[in-house]
From TrEMBL:
Keyword Isomerase recorded: yes
Protein name according to UniProt: Protein meaA
Cofactor: adenosylcob(III)alamin
Subunit structure: Heterodimer of an alpha and a beta chain.
Family affiliation: Belongs to the methylmalonyl-CoA mutase family.
GO molecular function ontology, one term from the record: cobalamin binding
Length: 682
């Protein structure tokens, strides 16, 4: 037995969180209290898509989305239910919220006031709002307003917290979703740090923070990073991040206090890298990815949240989330990881890799600066195009076998897994009545908020005050707090700002992406291209037309973009209008463009409501013969129900071959048009 070294000091563990929330505020509250009882040391709130995009549960775009990927919070009453029995003054709460970050923090503060916190107590609140809108335009898609007004909301929140909530992290620059959208390590570092520079420049330009307090602003900027399975490269990436952030804050902003220049980051390891095939392998992937952000003391995360092994199948159950929490606890409490100084210090191999990442990242940051900064690079489409191209290149490597993924493109033979023997119970099912409950509760809130015993001031006055502030230059947080106290709803708050700021549709990045998979003779893509051309000739049309649609509020467009790019390379004319479309808008576009197939991409779980709606509308319009295919995280029972409803084909993460998917789409078009089948990859 190894003798335990007496007297060796052990570092304090990182903050342990589980990203959670679903169905209703009451159900999520039970989940949080259960997690805290199991040893979590912080909360990480997942909000549903209507809350993230500023819609109430009864809005047409919220249909099918309420309570799916997170908890619905439509007003102060929901925030009360969410944290019932949880004292905010003793809780470190992370809120993954961006476009509506100011609104959710206002609700949180008002709830803290109701719990009895005075001004000094509010100043002691600890936690994080993600509040990074730039990456929403590039990857996650929960933006609402144009870049300029969105940046104003971000900077106003930062300035407010510096003065009133100095322990709060008001912005969490998030490269996590950039990696999931295809970013290379260099792109992840450069795009995230360019975003941080843009945010800090804007905060200081607004003049709400005196120059002598700049260090306090810089010191409260945190980052949220992804860690993939190439854990040595990922660990080097974290060291490069820290080195560059220290340099930027010292040289650009003159910050002398080393503590304020520290690269403070939290992490969730790569969820979209988890596989539906042989999902038990995801456990070791999660462990390796966690080592990337904990093994090196000089680049260790301050907070960690791990996905569950079955996230590629659907929504994790409480037991699955406990398993992920136990992984953290075993590493922190049973291993000797926290007893040593940095074990990579002085390594020539590590230093060479870090130096290379720093140099290449600086080059990319200079390119973005020459364009006019990160917002200009967003609006021009440059950043999105680079991400789509990088993702396409990675997908091509996976499909060719150059990049191996165990259980997906190699070592596919497997014994039956007891974990997935019953797929119907392997994931959590959201209560199908949750949406109706949320709508009914919202109706009650609107009807009673101004009556006894609530007696809130009329929301319309607070909303008019908010619009006046938005039309001017003052900080918007005080007007937002007035709205929260007046019982305003999430949709009303965002709707008032939409009237002033307008809305925005980000570039898709699809049209200018170079070919990632060449269609050389004898390749699968060449065969599919020939089938596309032959089918078009038989139908007497110039080209086959495919509509790729993103119904509802799901903004994870990576998969849809890759299908659109590959279909284009295979010879299709592709109609892709980006995210956030209603079923009616998708059907109208399908009819106007006279498409041969409609492809729908939904990762939020809203497929059960939105896909049948599209099918009904096509039938009503006399276009029932247009095949509809669907892709997303779709449990087996749901996939079968969609097929029975009339969906031609369902694709899930196990269908990793995009060329083969395009071949299947050609098959479905031929079958719908009563053409003889042709040999294409299947």
């Amino acid at each position: 037995m190894t003798e335990y070294p007496a007297g060796r000091a052990k570092d304090r563990p990182w903050l342990m969180r589980t990203y959670a929330g679903h169905s209703t505020a009451q159900a999520s509250n039970a989940l949080y209290r259960q997690g805290l009882a199991h040893g979590q040391t912080g909360l990480s709130v997942a909000f549903d898509l209507p809350t993230q995009t500023g819609y109430d549960p009864d809005h047409v775009l919220a249909r099918g989305e309420v309570g799916r990927v997170g908890v619905p919070v439509a007003h102060l009453g929901d925030m009360r239910s969410l944290f019932e029995g949880i004292p905010l003054e003793r809780t470190n709460t992370s809120m993954t919220i961006n476009a509506t970050a100011m609104w959710l923090l206002a609700l949180y503060q008002v709830l803290a006031e109701e719990q009895g916190l005075d001004e000094g107590g509010i100043a002691r609140l600890a936690g994080t709002t993600q509040n990074d809108i730039v990456k929403e335009y590039l990857s996650r898609g929960t933006y609402v307003f144009p870049p300029g007004p969105s940046l104003r909301l971000t900077t106003d929140l930062i300035a407010y917290t510096v003065h009133r909530m100095p322990k709060w992290n008001p912005v969490n620059i998030c490269s996590y979703h950039l990696q999931e959208a295809g970013a290379t390590p260099v792109q992840e570092i450069a795009f995230a740090l360019s975003t941080a520079v843009t945010v800090l420049d804007a905060v200081f330009a607004r003049g709400q923070v005196p120059e002598e307090r700049r260090g306090e602003v810089v010191g409260r900027v945190s980052f949220f990073v992804s860690a993939g399975v190439r854990f040595v490269e990922e660990m080097c990436k974290m060291r490069a991040f820290g080195r560059l952030w220290d340099r930027i804050t010292r040289e650009r902003y003159g910050i002398e206090d080393a503590r304020q220049r520290r690269f403070r980051y939290g992490v969730q390891v790569n969820s979209l890298g988890l596989t539906e095939s042989q999902p038990e392998n995801n456990v070791q992937r999660i462990v390796l990815e966690m080592l990337a952000v904990t093994l090196s003391k000089d680049a260790r995360a301050r907070a960690v949240q791990l996905p569950a092994w079955n996230e590629a199948l659907g929504l994790p159950r409480p037991w699955d989330q406990q398993w992920s929490l136990r992984i953290q606890q075993v590493l922190a409490h049973e291993s000797d990881l926290l007893e040593y100084d940095d074990i990579f210090a002085g390594s020539d191999v590590i230093e060479t890799e870090v130096a290379g990442l720093v140099e290449r990242s600086l080059t990319e940051m200079e390119r973005i600066e020459e364009m006019g900064g990160v917002l200009a690079a967003v609006e021009s489409g440059y950043l999105k195009e680079r991400l789509v191209a990088s993702h396409a290149a990675r997908r091509a490597r996976v499909e060719s076998g150059e990049e191996e993924i165990v259980g997906v493109n190699c070592h596919r033979a497997t014994e039956p897994s007891p974990l997935t023997a019953d797929l119907g119970t392997a994931v959590l099912s959201v209560d199908p009545g949750a949406e109706a409950q949320a709508v009914a509760a919202l109706d009650r809130w609107r009807a009673t908020r101004c009556r006894p015993p609530f007696n809130r001031p009329r929301p319309c006055k607070a909303l008019e005050r908010l619009k006046e502030a938005a039309a001017g230059t003052e900080n918007l947080m005080e007007a937002t707090l007035e709205c929260a106290r007046a019982g305003v709803t999430t949709g009303e708050w965002a709707g008032a700002l939409r009237e002033v700021f307008g809305e925005y549709r980000a570039p898709t990045g699809v049209s200018s992406v170079p070919v990632a998979v060449p269609a050389r003779d004898g390749t699968g893509l060449a065969d599919v291209r020939a089938a596309v051309q032959g089918t078009a000739a038989e139908l007497g049309c110039g080209r086959l037309r495919l509509l790729v649609g993103k119904p509802g509020l799901d903004g994870h467009s990576n998969g849809a973009e890759q299908i659109a790019v590959r279909a284009r390379d295979a010879g299709f004319e592709v109609v892709y209008q980006g995210i956030r479309l209603t079923p009616g808008e998708i059907v109208a576009a399908a009819l106007a463009e006279d498409v041969h197939c409609v492809g729908l991409s939904i990762l939020s779980g809203a497929h059960t409501a939105l896909v049948p709606d599209v099918l009904r509308r096509l039938r009503t319009a006399g276009a029932a013969d247009v095949p509809v295919v669907v892709g997303g995280i779709i449990p087996a029972d749901d996939a079968e129900a969609l097929r029975r409803a009339g969906v031609a084909a369902v694709f899930t993460p196990k269908d990793f071959g995009i060329t083969e998917i395009i071949g299947r789409i050609v098959d479905e078009i031929r079958q719908a048009n009563k053409l003889d089948p042709v040999e294409v990859p299947a």
